[in-house]
Prior knowledge:
Helix content is about 80%, strand content about 0%. It contains 12 helices and no strands. It is globular.
Amino acid sequence: MLDDFMTRATLAGVGVAFAAAPLGCFVVWRRMAYFGDATAHAAILGVALSLTLEMSIFPGTLAVALIMALTVTFLTGRGYAMDTLLGVLAHSALAFGLVAVSFLSGIRIDLMAYLFGDILAVSRTDLLVIWGGAALVVALIVWRWAALLTSTLNEELAYASGLDPKREQLILTLSLAITVAVAIKVVGVLLIAAMLIIPAAAARGLARTPEAMAMISACIGAVSAIAGLRAAYILDTPAGPSIVCVAAILFAAFNVIGWQTRSRT
């Protein structure tokens, strides 16, 4: 069954959707959209590092994404506004990564595949990495779900409950780095943040509890991956951007439905 490239692509897209869904909810709740974008942009530097060391893309992107996320967490509140700091680090990391890639000699690199994804080229090994990373992210979020929710709701309440909000932030940071590392093959650096934010934002108006929002977000992400791949196959369009387009259409549709429902009540 896995010999079919469309089957592998579909499984890869669904795996990334499951990894991004619960994490995307926290990104929306904490208003960390630019944080996810900065971490994703740093992944290009990880690609260059991996190719230089002749190793798999996953560990290099994971290491650099984690370093970026930890750096942002450490420097926040030390003299710079969060949006300024993220803007500097995000675009600097992307620029340094692209320059570093240009210095690699004897290696043919398809930058478009890393910037916008190449889901149709996913291999069986890539599937193992994607689903392994997704399982790890889901396990981390489920393990710390109550603590993460409390820290997101109110840091003072978290301290009063014996929790350390900074530790919960580090867990989110680690989960974000893993998600970026496994998603780069599917939707690419420039679209990872979209898969984190759009399904979660679309699910927000449909859910009544945080748990329901995470589950609905996963369903929206999975449907976006499947429908986007089908549309790309029929219309001969880029697969990664097609997946994000479907997610954006679902977001718009659910918002229109929500507005109509609220106007009638």
